């Protein structure tokens, strides 16, 4: 049980680091767009893997990671970043899908009309 709590804390810190680098926000918005547009949910793991690999290979995290050293060392493993981006993308997809449902139930326009 203690290991599960530590793992959740580590994932939370890593999500904070990814959002601080803005690439996590980009992945979240992309996943929310998938949910809003009602695209298939199997695209969420695909988006998570792509974002995790891109973040692992191309994003330098040295500017923010001084305060969260354990999360930084965990982020250096590519597999852990894929787990982090899976959480980000899954939550983004759910937010997008429920946002569309809420907009439809309140009678708000779902798209801009000419």
Description:
The protein has helices at 2-20, 23-36, 43-58, 69-75, 78-105. The N and C termini lie far apart (55 Å). The mean pLDDT is 85. The chain is an all-alpha fold and 114 residues long. It has one domain (2-105). It is elongated, with a radius of gyration of 16 Å.
Tally of individual domains: 1
Give the biggest beta sheet.
Answer: none
SS-based class: mainly alpha
Strand content: under 5%
Q: Terminal Cα separation, in Å?
A: 55 Å
Number of discrete helical segments: 5
Radius of gyration: 16 Å
Percentage of residues assigned to helices: over 70%
Q: Please write the string of helix (H) and strand (E) elements.
A: HHHHH
Shape: elongated
Count the strands? 0
Unreliable spans: none
Mean of pLDDT: 85
